[in-house]
């Protein structure tokens, strides 16, 4: 809980079209060939020769298609014919008349490498240079690994396809991959930062196509499977082919996102015959840093109780990501679930079921998007330390010396004055709809000012897995605070309607506790533009915030975010703050600015010279 400085001793469902990406039994005339799936349930298409794109039959690509590595995938079914190459032979019913034809953009992969900027990973029309091309050229599930990047924390768009499998006119993938394989990759490191390689929110192409519209292997042609006969395929399950969208502030009593898998069956009534349902959900950076993910899966649209399932820690490419797992056997869930989120981000939900003696798998992309600019902060010692998120508007207000000091204190959105129920600061914009101030991440329903601090994590229970949590009592001093959740959730500040040219400085300060490694995410119109600081998945361990014991916590000055445009089409420019003289156990390098312990009167302040013009002007040292 917060105490006086002298006593601080402790530390809307938007279903964007359901396409026809079908998962069905293989073969004709009643065959029961095993399903070809992204996670190793069938025969893979032979790899394309990376130099000639000739379609030469060669060894099976190693690995789980989700993970980009592992062992060879083998056929798991039985009964019907196995189509292992282009020479498909008609079965007894005579369905097949012509062999499949490859599309114009077949899978092409360079040899495995840890440096896609080594000069050997380029495709014609997609050179990497020294900073990468945004594609997974060696098909290992990482993008631009080994390539340099501008500064720690910035991100760029990436795709989990190679530079040899894109439309040269658009320089983007085609088919299912145009949306499903798109994500963002973050810049990590210290003196010589490099792209982390992790394309957050993206899924790779399928090794082979499906016998239904959707172009799942993303080669520019539908229904051209090389491992099953698509001329007489019977559709059994049809999966969504485009992402779902929702908001990171769900109303717990009326969750906005419903996923009804019965609609994926040709006859929805058949869903009742399906068995062994399993739903797995994984998400963003802070979900892997917090004790438990900040999302839940529910059986109904009422999320006032505990979420279904359990926290798991073995998801993703390297089997080291956290998520929620829900099964029919343990949780009673079948074809309908309601996922809900309290953080922005790109999430992947994998769904598997058995029907008619076959196993079917769908992979869904879900985007939790807030309007405007949204900053989120989490840290490694949540539950034992109090780290505060700050945001200041550095332009357009009547302030003689821009910054966080003196007469300009009203510009700082922080825990004491920027909660939805708080007073004491000049709000920068008109209030937002009250519907944006409900749910797990909000301190209070009703009032919805702009900007606002929707969650202030003062203390929390590391054992609490429910993002809604249970209420902690109000805290009366130094400023009365409303009841809060005991869930260890990220702090978040929202600016719902920024204007063209508006610029915001973002940082975190250690308010109480001895040490913390913070992480900051910043979203611009739902797009992740910043992923900075501590991240166990990428190996980033800086910056470090410490307290001298005299209640003088360190302050990480991340940098500036400038808005371009207005309304629903804004973009953002990010400029990070660097230090002139780095402190080894705090900044780690000149790439960060952690202002060391100072007096209580200045520790929360930005250097108030040239704040509106330069990010580096924010740093004291």
Question: How is the topology of this model organized?
Answer:
Elements (H helix, E strand, L loop, with lengths): L13 E2 L5 E3 L131 E5 L17 H4 L1 E7 L5 E2 L41 E3 L4 E3 L12 E2 L14 E8 L2 H5 L5 E4 L11 E6 L5 E7 H4 L4 E6 L3 E11 L2 E11 L4 E7 L6 E8 L18 E2 L38 E4 L15 E2 L11 E2 L5 E5 L7 E10 L2 E2 L1 E7 L2 E7 L11 E2 L8 E10 L6 E6 L17 E2 L26
Parallel strand pairs: 7-15
Antiparallel strand pairs: 1-7, 2-6, 3-4, 4-5, 8-13, 9-12, 9-14, 10-13, 11-12, 14-15, 16-22, 16-25, 17-18, 17-23, 19-22, 20-21, 23-28, 24-27, 25-26, 28-29, 28-30
Tell me what the structure shows.
The structure is a single chain. The protein is mainly β. The protein is globular. Mean pLDDT is 79; it is low at 1-88, 402-407, 599-604 and 607-612. The strands form 8 sheets. Strands 1-7-15-14-9-12-11 form a 7-stranded mixed sheet. Strands 17, 18, 23, 28, 29 and 30 form a 6-stranded antiparallel sheet that branches. The two termini are 31 Å apart. The chain has a domain at 5-9 and 370-618. The chain is built from 3 helices and 30 strands. The chain has helices at residues 177-180, 285-289, 328-331; strands spanning 14-15, 21-23, 155-159, 182-188, 194-195, 237-239, 244-246, 259-260, 275-282, 295-298, 310-315, 321-327, 336-341, 345-355, 358-368, 373-379, 386-393, 412-413, 452-455, 471-472, 484-485, 491-495, 503-512, 515-516, 518-524, 527-533, 545-546, 555-564, 571-576, 594-595. A hairpin with a 6-residue loop joins strand 28 and strand 29 (571-576).
